């Protein structure tokens, strides 16, 4: 039989088919080959006489991300907040760079818009100007359900972002199952992670959404060479500089630095590019 892994807990995988959902284990051969089935994987599995399921083959993956470790994603809904918890532009740009590198579309969900000033909301629209879809929501008083459902329609989407940014409340507005909602720690002003496992919810034909554990930080291990980072910033004009191998840092007649001076490239984005460039370079040099 063929199905999709929609949930995993320890070594049990819940595989959804057109008929039913089956609880399965992975055959020992996967462990020997150091291969782990992921939520989102399309798999072949057998059902034994005692109704136990065993995954026998993982079908080709469209893509995979490491944190959270999921597969076959069409787009990511990346949650950020201006306040409670506070905005972190460096983490945003790092995450967007990762998604660009592995070619996954991103929709930026600005949650808790009711806590932000108009000036802050206008500032974050810089991401809209460079091509990212931006959606502002108030999970409790102004939830744009119809707009969200159009964004999700016909796709497998993953909900991602730091703990406490409103992901669980967002999902509760979309799915029938009740999802545990946490609070913000008063001591750290960071969210308490309430999602304990990765799970997929079906919202209609060919429309699925992941519930994934929140994260506070991640390693920039998705890219090996700092010289490839420039291709992960979609507003950079990488083909108009004097030198073909321009990294847009110290090279003369650099189109990106010229665009920076003219205001076509946001200063914070460029500064975060430089920080990421050095982070990748240092990591490579310590290999």
UniProtKB/TrEMBL annotation:
Binding site for GTP: 111-114, 161-169
UniProt keyword list: Cytoplasm, GTP-binding, Hydrolase, Metal-binding, Nucleotide-binding, Ribosome biogenesis, RNA-binding, rRNA-binding, Zinc
Keyword presence, Methyltransferase: no
Record's subcellular location: Cytoplasm
Cofactor: Zn(2+)
Gene Ontology molecular-function annotations: GTP binding; GTPase activity; metal ion binding; rRNA binding
Top-level taxon in the UniProt lineage: Bacteria
Transmembrane portions of the chain: none
Enzyme class (EC, first level): hydrolase
Ranges for domain EngC GTPase: 71-216
This protein's GO CC annotations: cytoplasm
Cofactor binding annotation: Binds 1 zinc ion per subunit.
Matches recorded under CDD domains: S1_YloQ_GTPase, YjeQ_EngC
Enzyme Commission numbers on file: 3.6.1.-
CP-type G domain boundaries: 62-218
Residues binding Zn(2+): 241, 246, 248, 254
Pfam annotation, one family: RsgA_N
Purpose of the protein: One of several proteins that assist in the late maturation steps of the functional core of the 30S ribosomal subunit. Helps release RbfA from mature subunits. May play a role in the assembly of ribosomal proteins into the subunit. Circularly permuted GTPase that catalyzes slow GTP hydrolysis, GTPase activity is stimulated by the 30S ribosomal subunit.
Assembly information from the UniProt record: Monomer. Associates with 30S ribosomal subunit, binds 16S rRNA.
PANTHER family: SMALL RIBOSOMAL SUBUNIT BIOGENESIS GTPASE RSGA, SMALL RIBOSOMAL SUBUNIT BIOGENESIS GTPASE RSGA 1, MITOCHONDRIAL-RELATED
Similarity-based family: Belongs to the TRAFAC class YlqF/YawG GTPase family. RsgA subfamily.
Protein name: Small ribosomal subunit biogenesis GTPase RsgA
Annotated organism of origin: Anaerococcus vaginalis ATCC 51170
Protein's gene: rsgA
């Amino acid at each position: 039989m063929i199905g999709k892994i929609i949930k995993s807990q320890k070594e049990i995988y819940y595989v959804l088919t057109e008929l039913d959902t089956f609880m399965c284990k992975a055959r020992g051969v996967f462990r020997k080959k150091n291969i782990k089935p992921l939520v989102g994987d399309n798999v072949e599995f057998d059902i034994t006489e005692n109704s136990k399921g065993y995954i026998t083959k993982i079908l080709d993956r469209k893509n995979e991300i490491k944190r959270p470790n999921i597969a076959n994603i069409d787009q990511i809904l990346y949650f950020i907040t201006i306040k409670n918890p506070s905005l972190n532009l460096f983490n945003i740009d790092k995450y967007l760079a990762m998604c660009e590198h592995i070619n996954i579309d991103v929709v930026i969900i600005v949650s808790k818009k009711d806590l932000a000033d108009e000036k802050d909301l206008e500032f974050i629209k810089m991401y809209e100007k460079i091509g990212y879809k931006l959606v502002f929501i108030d999970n409790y008083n102004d939830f744009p359900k119809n707009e969200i459902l159009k964004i999700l329609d016909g796709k497998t989407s993953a909900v991602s972002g730091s703990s406490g940014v409103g992901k669980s409340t967002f999902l509760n507005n979309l799915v029938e199952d009740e999802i545990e909602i946490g609070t913000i720690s008063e001591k750290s002003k960071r969210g308490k992670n309430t999602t304990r496992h990765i799970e997929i919810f079906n919202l209609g034909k060919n429309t699925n959404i992941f519930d994934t554990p929140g994260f506070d930080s991640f390693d920039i291990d998705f890219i090996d060479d700092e010289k490839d980072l420039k291709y992960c910033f979609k507003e950079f004009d990488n083909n108009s500089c004097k030198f073909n191998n321009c990294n847009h840092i110290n090279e003369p007649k650099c189109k990106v630095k010229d665009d920076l001076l003219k205001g076509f490239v946001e200063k914070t984005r460029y500064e975060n590019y430089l920080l990421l460039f050095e982070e990748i370079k240092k990591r490579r040099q310590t290999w």
